[in-house]
Amino acid sequence: MKPPFSKLLIANRGEIACRIIATARRLGVKTVAVFSDADARALHVELADEAVRIGPAPATDSYLDANAIIAAAKRTGAEAIHPGYGFLSENPEFVEAVEAAGLVFVGPSADSIRAMGLKDAAKRLMEKAGVPVVPGYHGEAQEVVVLAAKANEIGYPVLIKARAGGGGKGMRKVDDQRAFKDALGAAKREAKSAFGDDRVLVEKYVATPRHIEVQVFGDSHGNVVHLFERDCSLQRRHQKVIEEAPAPGMTDDVRAAMTEAAVKAAQAINYSGAGTIEFIADGSGPLRSDGFWFMEMNTRLQVEHPVTEAITGQDLVEWQLRVAAGETLPLSQGDIAISGHAFEARLYAEDPANGFLPATGTLHHLAFDQNARNDAGVRSGDAITPFYDPMIAKVITHGETRDEALSKLGTALRGTHVAGTVTNAAFLATLASHEGFARGEVDTGLIDRENSALIVSEPLTEAAIALAAVTALELDPAARFAGWRLWGDASHPVRFMHGGEELKRRLLLPGDGSVVLEGGAETVRLRGIVREGTKVSARTGATGAMIEANIAVWRGIEGTEISILMDGVAHDLLMPDPLAVAAHHGDLGDAILAPMTGIVRAVTAREGVAVDKGDKLVVLEAMKMETSLTAPRAGLVAEIFCAEGETVDGGAVLLRFEETGS
Ligand code: ADP
Ligand code: ADP
Ligand code: MG
Q: Measured between alpha carbons, how far is 392 from 156 in angstroms, rounded to an integer?
């Protein structure tokens, strides 16, 4: 088949940019990546045929800079622009600018986006089109008294929603009349600062809500089809965590009613391209044909589109490109069928034990379960920076049955090893084995209710510490035993830092091929240690039970860093090295460290050039601020380890400094 375009520019980053490039390549479409300074060496830049820098790290100066992106497309001769999701994907002015420049926007028309852009107007439109909408007030009035009266009419609990909202922001559930005014104020303030629009709508809060959405697709010839539903009820703070397709408990009747409503919604706005109609369903009992209501439409490819691809066997990015090129839809409704069941889990650099605080860091090691589809935008060695969404990857599994797909999801998550930052992998794995979830009893409150049970704090076992020690010290009991035998049975002290605590142990090599770790809560003996890459196994205990772990080891600024993934939980250990610390803190020759993860804006120092105390050496941009790193005293710049535009981790050595004359 003829490629839909000769060259495509992808106006996005991360996993979705990589995802789009993969399909474009398969179709014979040349690709152009765009990147900010923070992403100069990012995976999407490497995968694309060409790449264009569009500005500094902050998204407003790069991935949201419509002019820079369109100029990059013109300059490289791209015919079309794929916006991915987020950023400019639902911006009608961008669509118009792209089209005015003689380029094709891979997505719906500016008018379709406008029609669905504001939740209140979209609901009024859908009501007219005969689509059931969430009961509530979505008119123009914004006076407190009017809205409070509407809330009384609707009946509590109600949900106040920013009409321009997205990503779960600008929303407040209100349980009774007395709390209404304050909640309204809070919602309006949040909406104003996040979306620059403080207008709200008031909805009936659906009890035991389930989020079920329908994937729709239109072409420029007036055809619209659906590709069934996805259930995205597992949410945190109104944000999706695990999605699946089809929805558990879905019946033919309800599916027919829901997909028919979704197609009607798309037809009402002459929709072309990929879109999602989000419904809220009453999950207090079995799904009903009169128990779901339109919430909003997302006029773009959705983050969770892979579960639909898995159950239909279709490539939705290919569909988008073909439709954008003017082709008719690849399949008609009757030719689209569901096969099996699929799940997607969103893997984030965030700390569940610490209120899901977003994290940054260098991914010193990144390994996925090869039986799953892992859509990632990063590879080993890449950094999660503070500038963008901290999503690391999406883990997607497919099975003939829901049980099979869910069990594969759990296995895949437990086998996902991310070293160098904290992630929600263990949280997701625990969620994947939650009994209610396994029975298909999902609603948007499940995660909140079960939160404490889902946040695992698996203790680090002595066996795991022993495996980590053997690996980090590169002990090979078979080959290097002689050296260790010099100590005979004497124990060798080993010291770790773990979660701010010092662990002091003694390691023994009795000479029979085993390794013994003493000094902890129990003494462990490992036998038959086998290492294959990062996989390390051994037998332990009286029964000789097999234990297995994935262990990544790297040199950090304070010593040897170890990340050990065992039984689906990753633990970090540090073997402090006083020499390493000294080298980095100036005892052996001063080093200038990055105080936090950021981007090198300027390197004013020159190798071999003497500086005075206070002279500017490097300018670092982090957290939207520029910091000048200056010479702590007079000296000579011996070596520079960073370059302008580079992303550096907090703690990274930027340059080394010597005393003059030394
Ligand atoms: P979806 O509606 O597609 O399931 P969500 O509602 O969970 O997605 O929201 C994901 C949101 O993340 C996007 O709507 C967007 O606002 C934001 N986002 C924007 N750009 C990116 C990106 N490159 N990577 C991850 N998230 C992004
Ligand atoms: P966003 O644009 O932020 O995605 P949505 O309108 O799609 O906003 O709502 C986000 C989430 O909030 C939904 O997925 C659902 O979990 C919850 N929600 C929205 N409306 C209601 C409602 N009327 N009753 C209960 N929960 C709701
Ligand atoms: Mg939504």
A: 39
CA of 295 to the centre of ligand 2 (A): 7
Give CA–CA dist 582/559, Å, rounded.
10
Residues 427-476: tens digit of each pLDDT: 999 999 999 999 999 999 999 999 999 997 888 999 999 999 999 988 76
* Buried/exposed 46-75: b ≥16 CB within 10 Å, e otherwise: ebbebbbbbbbbbbeebbbbbebbbebbee
Ordered domains of the chain (ranges, CATH)? 7-106 (3.40.50.20), 135-204 (3.30.1490.20), 210-454 (3.30.470.20), 462-578 (3.30.700), 587-658 (2.40.50.100)
Q: Which atom of ligand 1 is nearest to the CA of 168?
A: 6
DSSP bridge pairs for 547: 538
Helical segments of 314-362, H only: 316-324
Q: How far apart are the first and last CA of the chain?
A: 68
- SS3 for 102? coil
Record the tokens describing residue 89, joined without a space: 């994907």
Task: Using pLDDT thresholds of 50, 70 and 90, give the confidence band for residue 481.
Answer: very low
- Prediction pTM value: 0.88
CB atoms within 10 A of CB 456: 14
Give CA separation, 594 vs 387, 557, 621, in Å.
16, 11, 10
Given a contact cutoff of 8 angstroms between Cβ atoms, the answer to whether 627 and 608 are in contact is no
* Cβ of residue 276 lying under 6 Å from some atom of ligand 2: no
Cβ contact 408:372 at 8 Å = yes
DSSP class of residue 133 equals B
- Cβ atoms of 73 and 53 closer than 8 Å: no
333-359 burial: b if 16+ Cβ within 10 Å, else e = eeebebebbbbbbbbbbbbbeeebeeb
Alpha-carbon distance of 279 to 293, in angstroms, equals 5
Pocket of ligand 1 (CB under 6 A): 12-14, 16, 85-87, 166-167, 239-240, 298, 302-304, 389, 391
Q: Catalytic residue, from 114, 163, 230, 300: name it.
A: 300
Q: What is the dihedral sign for C-alpha 75, 76, 82, 88?
A: negative
In whole angstroms, give the CA distance from residue 505 to residue 522: 11
CA distances, 481 to each of 512, 526, 633 (Å): 10, 15, 48
The b/e string for 541-573 (b: 16+ C-beta within 10 A; e otherwise) is eeeeeebebbbbbeebbbbbbbbbbbebbbbbb
Is-catalytic flag, 505? no
Q: Where residue 480 falls among pLDDT bands split at 50, 70, 90?
A: very low
Contact 503, 513 (CB under 8 A): no
